[in-house]
Amino acid sequence: MRKVFWILVFSISMAFVEAGVVVYLRDLYYPEGFAFPLKMITERNLIVEIGREAATILMLISVAALSGNRFWEKFSYLLICFGIWDICYYLWLKLAIGWPSSLLDWDILFLIPLPWIGPVIAPVTISIVMISTGLFIIYLYKRGYDFRPSSLTWVLAVIGTLVILYSFMRDTGATLHEHMPLPYRYDALIAGEILYLVAIFFAWRNTVDECGSREQR
To answer: pTM for the full model?
Structure first.
């Protein structure tokens, strides 16, 4: 719980830093309020933004690596840290500039390798799944189980990830050519999250089965 507390402190603080940067960018590029179609930023600022986002991911990985002892324990802390950071990022923006007005407002979510766009509810619900999964893995370790996802778990998780990434990056007209965005593929988001939940279920089953088999030996 102490580790989770400090991860919580780091994630909330980091979210404020991230939100602060976005407040300044929106004042610069969207003085009348953020809205689509997107405005293309300068090449220099784009390079800096891509570097900043990459650095953000490395920071999250670093904290997770320092928090756990085994790979899956570290991975669980990464999920928790990422999820809390993402949710708190939107909470800080809401407090600072009153945005988003609802969870259905569209946002630029990420820039690597292509710009990701979608409604705020998409990253928020994914973050909830990530936090829940991370806490579940830690719970299994505390109960004495060595987390062991099966091959089916990997397949489902990869397919779910690709489906969700498709929902974010499919509309290159809106992200690269300043068009209005196409309707968001909520069906892809829901399908991807269902695949994640099924993957977690099979990972739990495999973990319990393998630990039970070792105890019988």
So the answer is: 0.92
